[in-house]
């Protein structure tokens, strides 16, 4: 299934196309992926709520969402939205492609386009894959608190991260604000 394979190319980000949404909805149906993501929709099977959510996302000028494409196949999404007036990054990779570095490469590509700093992120404390992606991308742990996880129906530990400045090779003068 490609686990342990080094990702060397063929990964691209593009604007979200309406044809991507049924694929994203399928990704959202995976119980294991929902468990790891933790902070998901209340009812991942509610297509109407999903469509309404994405309609809001795609019509909000403050949101920047991209589709992750690997060798022509939609494998996830990455983006930025504002929460409490702070820019937050988010990403989702189809479980079939976990462990191949896709989220790390996609987030790096995204952060090369979305250059405003600081930028924030969070992950379930028991999601080592997502935490590893954020740390490899230069995010630093900022704290932890209990938060309600829809996918688990209970409060869990959520770890908060911040990326304060441009990474090596990035020109901070090109930052978007």
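^ Assign residues to that structure.
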């Amino acid at each position: 299934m490609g686990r342990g394979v080094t990702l060397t190319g063929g990964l691209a980000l593009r604007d979200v196309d309406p044809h991507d949404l049924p694929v994203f909805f399928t990704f959202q149906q995976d119980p294991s992926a929902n468990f790891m993501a933790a902070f998901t929709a209340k009812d991942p099977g509610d297509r109407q709520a999903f469509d309404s959510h994405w309609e809001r996302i795609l019509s909000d000028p403050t949101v920047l969402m991209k589709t992750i494409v690997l060798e022509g196949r939609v494998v996830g999404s990455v983006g930025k939205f504002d929460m409490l007036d702070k820019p937050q990054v988010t990403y989702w990779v189809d479980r079939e492609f976990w462990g191949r570095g896709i989220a790390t490469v996609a987030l790096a590509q995204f952060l090369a386009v979305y250059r405003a700093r600081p930028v924030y992120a969070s992950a379930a404390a028991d999601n080592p894959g997502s935490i590893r992606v954020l740390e490899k991308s230069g995010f630093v742990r900022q704290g932890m608190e209990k938060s309600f996880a829809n996918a688990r129906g209970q409060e869990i530990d959520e770890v908060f991260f911040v990326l304060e400045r441009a990474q090596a090779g990035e020109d901070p003068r090109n930052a978007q604000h």
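The chain is about 30% helix and 30% strand.
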